[in-house]
Amino acid sequence: xxxxxxxxxxxxxxxxxxxxxxxxxxxxxxxxxxxxxxxxxxxxxxxxxxxxxxxxxxxxxxxxxxxxxxxxxxxxxxxxxxxxxxxxxxxxxxxxxxxxxxxxxxxxxxxxxxxxxxxxxxxxxxxxxxxxxxxxxxxxxxxxxxxxxxxxxxxxxxxxxxxxxxxxxxxxxxxxxxxxxxxxxxxxxxxxxxxxxxxxxxxxxxxxxxxxxxxxxxxxxxxxxxxxxxxxxxxxxxxxxxxxxxxxxxxxxxxxxxxxxxxxxxxxxxxxxxxxxxxxxxxxxxxxxxxxxxxxxxxxxxxxxxxxxxxxxxxxxxxxxxxxxxxxxxxxxxxxxxxxxxxxxxxxxxxxxxxxxxxxxxxxxxxxxxxxxxxxxxxxxxxxxxxxxxxxxxxxxxxxxxxxxxxxxxxxxxxxxxxxxxxxxxxxxxxxxxxxxxxxxxxxxxx
Length: 447
Fold this sequence. Notes:
six-stranded mixed beta sheet; 8 strands; 447 residues
């Protein structure tokens, strides 16, 4: 049972469970509905208030956005105005700069036009000067050509005169040579073979003696009469300078034969003998003066050098006897200083050779003593090496002995009674008995 007290009168009464539950439900439903209505009203008011606040907030935000937009628009418009003003100022500056540049260009064009006009005037002046210069050069060339023509004409006339003189001189020499040939032909028909050779020798001797005193005052030109070597030439020519130094020597051989001789000789048949005579008599050159092979174009042309057969050998006709001597003498005279220098060098070479011989002898004796000392030194080194090897062997033997002693000592130290009696019962028993006897003896001594 449940007791309920009235709030107004204060009287109390009891109700059962069912009634109590019904009363509670009634009270709850009414209060719930009232509370619900109240709360719904409150919620509605709060919702309206929130909506109003949200609306006001949105209006304020919109107003703020509109203000910001207006401010931004105003700022942009101000920036546009500033940029337009700056652009206008830049355009004005560029226009002014363009006008100044245009004025400068127009001034430069005017200056260039003036310079071109002046240059045209100068070019015309230069062209006129060049034209006048070329005209003067052409006139000078014409004058030079005229002078050269006159010179050529005069030189041509002089050349014709010289040519005629040469032709006349050649014809004169040709007549002289022909007369000489006719003379020798006539001479050969009238003389024997021996007389022909002797006559050629006489001719050459006469030609040389004509100029001996003037051109070769210190010369020797005589017949070769020394036949000790089994052979001799015809003439030997030697010439000396003022100091008596010989600078040239020639061995001459003269050969000729008559047209009726049965056996015709050639110049080559006498080359070997002439070279032998030259070497035996110590002459530098060998010359064959020959009338042999009268129809040979080779020997009839002048001085023939046959050094390809024998060194420093020439074959000439009699008319080239003196020209060849003069030619060889002039060439050899230039070598006198070289010959003197060579002689001095040879004497110095003898002194140097003696010095070198003494030096070689000293070197030989020094090298002999050095070789003996070197051999003994090597022997001593070998003995030292042998001693070192022997001492090394002794050292190795001592080291090996020491190692063996160390091993033996280690083995002695490792040796014990236990190791000795291992696997040996008899010895083990003997040692045990000996230790027992020894302990008993020690006990008796203590008592």
